[in-house]
Amino acid sequence: MLGICRGRRKFLAASLTVLCIPAITWLYLFAGSFEDGKPVSLSPLESQPHSPRYAAAGPRERESLEVRVREVEEENRALRRQLSLAQGRAPGPRRGNHSRTYSMEEGTGDSESLRAGIVAGNSSECGQQPVVEKCETIHVAIVCAGYNASRDVVTLVKSVLFHRRNPLHFHLIADSIAEQILATLFQTWMVPAVRVDFYNADELKSEVSWIPNKHYSGIYGLMKLVLTKTLPANLERVIVLDTDITFATDIAELWAVFHKFKGQQVLGLVENQSDWYLGNLWKNHRPWPALGRGYNTGVILLLLDKLRKMKWEQMWRLTAERELMGMLSTSLADQDIFNAVIKQNPFLVYQLPCFWNVQLSDHTRSEQCYRDVSDLKVIHWNSPKKLRVKNKHVEFFRNLYLTFLEYDGNLLRRELFGCPSEADVNSENLQKQLSELDEDDLCYEFRRERFTVHRTHLYFLHYEYEPASDNTDVTLVAQLSMDRLQMLEAICKHWEGPISLALYLSDAEAQQFLRYAQGSEVLMSRHNVAYHIVYKEGQFYPVNLLRNVAMKHVGTPYLFLSDIDFLPMYGLYEYLRKSVIQLDLANTKKAMIVPAFETLRYRLSFPKSKAELLSMLDMGTLFTFRYHVWTKGHAPTNFAKWRTATTPYRVEWEADFEPYVVVRRDCPEYDRRFVGFGWNKVAHIMELDAQEYEFIVLPNAYMIHMPHAPSFDITKFRSNKQYRVCLKTLKEEFQQDMSRRYGFAALKYLTAENNS
Fold this sequence. Notes:
Blueprint: H1 2-32, E1 34-35, E2 38-39, H2 52-56, H3 59-89, E3 100-101, H4 112-122, E4 131-132, E5 138-144, H5 146-163, E6 168-174, H6 176-189, E7 194-200, H7 205-208, H8 227-230, E8 237-241, E9 245-247, H9 251-255, E10 267-271, E11 295-303, H10 304-309, H11 312-327, H12 334-344, E12 349-352, E13 358-359, E14 378-380, H13 394-405, H14 425-435, H15 444-449, E15 456-457, E16 474-481, H16 487-494, E17 499-505, H17 507-518, H18 521-524, E18 529-535, H19 543-552, E19 558-561, E20 566-568, H20 572-582, E21 590-594, E22 596-598, H21 610-619, E23 623-624, H22 639-644, E24 649-651, E25 660-664, H23 680-690, E26 694-697, E27 703-705, H24 712-719, H25 721-742, H26 747-755
Parallel strand pairs: 5-6, 5-8, 6-7, 10-12, 13-14, 16-17, 16-19, 17-18, 21-26, 22-27
Antiparallel strand pairs: 1-2, 3-4, 8-11, 9-14, 10-11, 15-18, 19-25, 20-27, 21-25, 22-23, 24-26
Helix pairs in contact: 1-3, 5-6, 11-12
Family: In the C-terminal section; belongs to the glycosyltransferase 49 family.
Region (Disordered): 42-62, 82-110
Keywords: Glycoprotein, Glycosyltransferase, Golgi apparatus, Membrane, Multifunctional enzyme, Signal-anchor, Transferase, Transmembrane, Transmembrane helix
């Protein structure tokens, strides 16, 4: 460091020499060039041989003047060479695996006062250069509540992870909904060197609920005020971000700015880029008090330790109480109160260059924060219009945002080599299980899929449902991929009860689904449909994992285990609830079977009764499910008996039986070893039978399978011999596991398989 400082001193000295010596020389010449007390001009024009002054001078004076000018020019050339050599020796930013030093650029402020503030704020001595060590943990706090904000947080986190080179510790102040969603997401994301802690936002409501707030963020928009009290007492500094932020650079550069704070500066903020706090937006516009244009709180650097010593809690409360006597409520949530405090105590703020918070609301001066793409650091979509905001370069900003929105999050599971990470039990167990597999096994990819952890985003859209109080409620459970999306509206029209769906999508497909759902009146009118995104990874369709995800997040006592290609009969939801009571499912182990039929016609006049269905069955418009290709799968349902049945009847398990059933929520999960096509439902029904479930066929229930193109997995099953060999091997291993778990009673499954 001492060497760097000496080098910079030489650099500074050389620069001063270049500036000062010519000035001194010209002053000397100017002072020495008087004729009879009158100055002799030394302008370039008059020093030329043909100038009047030059012509009037004597030969000796002209010669003397030319010599002095040549001497000055020679000295300038020598100094320029020295300066260029000094620049060549100046050390650049260090890179590699040792440490990383971030030099902070000056801001591109939008006013003279802002430019002055940036220059003053960013000036530092050699010994105070901002340095972020390679393995230094960067702490980030985000307030998040609800389903939509949880999606926004994911895009923000992606943009941070994409650029980051340091371990990260996210502090998420979240309500119960956001915590459930994001805890599952980060647990299944398994990003190295990332730690996440949650703080219950609902418990903090009493701290700020006394403040009336008109902002669309509601009560959660005030919670940044209480971070000094909420975050751990030993946490000294933190970067606080709104959920509508997108990073275009390494967050370590922003973290390095903490080293520039001086004196009592405890808040790092960017000046507000709209005219809101100037009070001239409309007639009688009366904003909260602010210093100049005020500051935007979408990006905040907080020195927590100093704020606590300054009694920040008391400071902001007193200010808010005083201002609310006249203002009655806040318009911009916490931002109004932060600005009122800064107005009284301007020494608290360190003004960040405005490229750390380029605010894209309407009518802002954000365009003055950047001259080129490389100037951008942080983009803030702080308008309620979000991506529809008016800005000259909005297309560029929108594309940058969409890049992270649709970016494959699995690619962000990058190791930070050389940085020790905390022991993760789940990760260690996964590595142990994978290490025990034989990579030379021809079925290795099948076995590996069983242990693959798929990133999962629960409740991708708003979900709101309270189960019926009579404990008879039933949720339809299914899974799908992008090519079955068109079935959603039809199912919603046939089934009015709650639905739990697991969708196997890529990040880009998830956004396509979001746009599709938001554009559908049918889907948007239903708040009792839970959409859980399981992100694509690997070469197989993890059908049973998807079913388990959808089953696990059901709030009703009973599940209807269906598939996305089936339309339930009209009124099935209410019929099943009555059957639950009739068959006493609450106190007995029963699986109620809903008989399955199919049509080969894409346009079908759906039967409105059992009688109408039987008529269509006789006419050949409908068939029993898989009658042509896989009779064994549903033959035990005994369709001949069902035609005339008026009461529920019991059937026995048989080999390859795979009916669609209604069971209690505590039923066993599906076996994850079965992926793609084959035996995924068969194994589950076998497990139910081993646990002594009774199979009861419902006499007045039915569902119809709609035609579709063959899936990619069934195509692989039919065309790939090794696929079929591996499926047979997995079946045998499953049966052996059943024998170990259920003993003598499980022998019948081996016998039945041999006889089939």
